[in-house]
Amino acid sequence: MPEIPEIRAHAERLTAEFRGAELGTFRPLSFTALKTAVPSPNDAYGRTLDQVNQRAKYLLLRFGDLTFVVHLMQGGRLKPDEKQSKKPRGGLGRWTFDDGRALLLTEPGTERRAGIWVVAGDVENQEPVDHLGPEATSLSARDLENLFGDHSMRLHGFLRDQRILSGLGRRLANEICHRAGLSPLRPDLKTRRRR
Q: Which residue of 18, 74, 112, 158 has the lowest C-beta tally within 10 Å?
């Protein structure tokens, strides 16, 4: 699963390539892709893409006060769609711009867990990102120590719980434990910190 560094780099590449492009249409290609009904994706038609940001493991395609929130899940990809075929393999959703370019969200396999939400206004206070904890890259050592003190659980579970600390997945949690020389199964961080 892509984690903060990959998602952030992906957002920067998409911004560089598509910023200023005017949205012509959005089409969900799978019944399960679009997770919201209101506001309608049609409300973004005719608006230009201001920027692609990220929040934890989500990509945020901002069109004025409307934002398409995209979660790639395990194997999803959001990429330029040069062929624009009617039924792209693994296709979940397509944004087509007035200049003829398009972005395609794909996910291999049959699970189709990647998703798209359309949100009006402040993204931080709405599904699907309203439950996320602070991003791991934004915390000081003191902030992290306070979070450890507030949650009594195994280290690996703590690092991967998006409600406590967002943006890390299994790969980065494993790397953190390895570099720190700590067992991922180390229990009860709260008790051990206070000794």
A: 74
pLDDT tens profile 150-167: 888 888 888 889 999 898
Q: Are residues 140 and 118 both part of a single domain?
A: no
pLDDT digits (tens, 9 = 90+) for 96-154: 999 999 999 999 877 778 999 999 999 999 999 999 999 988 888 898 888 888 888 88
Q: Is residue 168 part of a domain?
A: yes
Is residue 146 domain-shared with residue 112, that is, in the same domain? no
First to last CA, the chain: 36
Q: How far apart are CA 38 and CA 21, in angstroms?
A: 23
3-state secondary structure of 98: coil
Q: In what order do the strands lie in the sheet with 115-120?
A: 51-55, 58-63, 66-71, 115-120
Q: Which domain holds residue 149?
A: 136-194
Q: pTM for this one?
A: 0.87
Q: What is the CATH number of the domain that holds 75?
A: 3.20.190.10
Q: Whole-angstrom Cα distance, residue 14 to residue 18? A: 6
Is the N-terminal amide bond of 39 cis, ω within 30° of 0?
yes
Amino acid, single-letter form, for residue 144:
L
